[in-house]
């Protein structure tokens, strides 16, 4: 039995989390010693409440929300003994999928496991994918769209961003070397998916202590448009313009003003540096 906190982000999934709050609490309560219920109405509140739950000694923090809420909870739980469970109720839910949680039942009946995290030089943690270039521009546009919901929002943003596609000089440095190229996007994956299930780094594994990095070299709009449909299947890695490798540390610079996104959340403009921290987070899932 455990002391648990349930952190509800009612705006997630256009109100889906709010509608699920009562049934989620009811499903959790028989399986924990105590359950503290918390409701956060914005990002600052989510972060503060997650930190408070950890400081108050919660053995398990359950977040009812999407990837944005999970990203904030990770900032509180990383490097602590508090396990994180996520009941997916957002738009993309990529972290929940990677953690093995598709419903509250997966948290209730799941097991605890260690999960690698990425850490930026700013101290910020991320769990899924850090990206920059075309894909981060898609993220910016998708986050601004009010319609449609779910993965189709990203599909629409992709089409719109293709219209203004430009490659940029990119310098990539790892613990084993440095290379430069003209690129349209770069993705540093702790887990395979971003954007609601797009396997941009299909071989990434959050238990191997390594990032999987995908770089798409500069090309025409037509070439990229032909490659993009293969992203859904992970077959883009077969394209000659795509370079993949693994590394423990990655620094990205150049990009002509590219902004990095991690877990779907805006971070900072390049240059950015990230490193893997094996087993930094305890997650609960199947």
From TrEMBL:
Please give an example of a GO cellular component term from this record. Answer: plasma membrane
Q: Which segments constitute the DAGKc domain?
A: 1-124
Q: Which PROSITE patterns match?
A: DAGK
What superkingdom heads the lineage?
Bacteria
Q: Which InterPro entries match?
A: ATP-NAD_kinase_N, Diacylglycerol_kinase_cat_dom, Lipid_Phosphate_FormReg, NAD/diacylglycerol_kinase_sf, YegS/DAGK_C
Q: Which PANTHER family match?
A: LIPID KINASE YEGS, SPHINGOSINE KINASE
Which family does the record claim for this protein? Belongs to the diacylglycerol/lipid kinase family.
Q: What is this protein called?
A: Diacylglycerol kinase (ATP)
């Amino acid at each position: 039995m455990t002391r648990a906190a349930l952190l509800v982000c009612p705006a997630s999934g256009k109100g889906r989390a709010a509608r699920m709050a009562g049934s989620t609490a009811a499903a959790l309560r028989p399986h924990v010693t105590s359950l503290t219920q918390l409701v956060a109405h914005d990002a600052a509140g989510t972060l503060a409440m997650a930190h408070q739950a950890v400081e108050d000694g919660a053995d398990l923090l359950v977040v009812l929300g999407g990837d944005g809420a999970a990203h904030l909870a990770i900032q509180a739980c990383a490097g602590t003994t508090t396990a994180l469970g996520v009941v997916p109720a957002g738009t993309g839910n990529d972290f929940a999928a990677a953690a093995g949680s598709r419903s509250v039942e997966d948290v209730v009946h799941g097991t605890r496991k260690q999960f690698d995290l990425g850490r930026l030089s700013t101290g910020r943690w991320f769990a899924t994918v850090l990206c920059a270039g075309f894909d981060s521009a898609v993220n910016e546009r998708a986050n601004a769209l009010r319609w449609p919901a779910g993965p189709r929002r990203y599909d629409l943003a992709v089409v719109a961003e293709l219209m203004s596609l430009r490659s940029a000089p990119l310098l990539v440095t790892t613990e084993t070397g440095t290379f430069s190229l003209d690129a349209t996007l770069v993705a540093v994956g702790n887990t395979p998916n971003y954007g609601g299930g797009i396997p941009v780094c299909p071989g990434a594994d959050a238990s191997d202590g390594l990032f999987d990095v995908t770089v798409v070299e500069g090309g025409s709009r037509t070439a990229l448009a032909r490659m993009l449909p293969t992203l859904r299947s992970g077959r883009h890695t077969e394209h000659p313009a795509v370079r993949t490798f693994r590394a423990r540390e990655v620094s990205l610079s150049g990009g002509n003003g590219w902004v990095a996104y991690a877990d779907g959340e805006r971070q900072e403009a390049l240059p950015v540096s990230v490193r893997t921290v094996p087993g930094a987070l305890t997650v609960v899932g199947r």
